[in-house]
Amino acid sequence: MCPAPPACPEPKYRGPLHCLATVAREEGLRGLYKGSSALLLRDGHSFATYFLSYAVLCEWLSPAGHSRPDVLGVLVAGGCAGVLAWAVATPMDVIKSRLQADGQGQRRYRGLLHCMVTSVREEGPRVLFKGLVLNCCRAFPVNMVVFVAYEAVLRLTRGLLT
Fold it and tell me: What pTM value is reported for the model?
């Protein structure tokens, strides 16, 4: 006879508001901002990479005599921009996630730099790129659609304003 599988533990949070209240109660206001320094470091340069690479790729993919690429060019530029942004963002995203998941009380990491150094020392530099392939597989199609919609809204609003 096979033993019964172990019962699934109850989830810690019953929803987003319960999560917010529990973290605030157990860790204080500061607990709500765990990982925010890594988030700021992640988003600053990744958004710069995102929009700059999109603009440059659009310029390269624009047919001669046109200021904007066609829909296929926008799809390619948007997808590539998303992938490049995540390639730049992933190291800080890994650190952000580790800081956010670090428990209260017996904390493993003292801060952003300690988390980064400890992670690289224990797992090697490749740890900073965990999830990159999956992020890129998601980023390419998502950002294709984002930028096609963005360009469509730009064209629509330009038509309304002129």
Answer: 0.77
Interval 38-66: pLDDT, tens: 888 888 999 999 999 999 999 999 988 88
- Distance in angstroms (rounded) separating the CA atoms of residues 4 and 38: 42
Residue that is written with structure tokens 């019953």 in the block: 14
Q: How far apart are CA 113 and CA 131, in angstroms?
A: 20
Domains, the chain: 35-161 (1.50.40.10)
Q: 17 and 32 in contact (C-beta within 8 Å)?
A: no
